[in-house]
Amino acid sequence: MFGPRHVKREGLETIYRAAGMLKAQVIKGRLEASGIPVLLDYEPIGQVFALTVDGLGEVRVLVPIEMAEAARELIAVDADDAIASEDDDELE
Questions:
Q1: Which helix (H) or strand (E) holds 28?
Q2: What per-residue confidence (pLDDT) applies to 29?
Q3: I want to staple 68 with a disulfide (CB 3.0 to 4.6 A). Which of 13, 18, 23, 64 is the partner?
């Protein structure tokens, strides 16, 4: 009916799958601020109706293959910082 959900993007690699556009936009902003170009790939119908079932709300974060490892490292550092920040908040 709608065709294949995951289209192969030549020269790009999926480095993250976000459960919604907000998280994907935050990751995109962080990567672009570090000089890594980003493409967000998603099903438009999921965004129109705010669906998060059966992968419709999933947003795939794609970067050039040669920058994929650096992008994953940046995301991992951000995740570690967020966890550390939450731990600090709990101690107060």
A1: helix 21-33
A2: 95
A3: 13
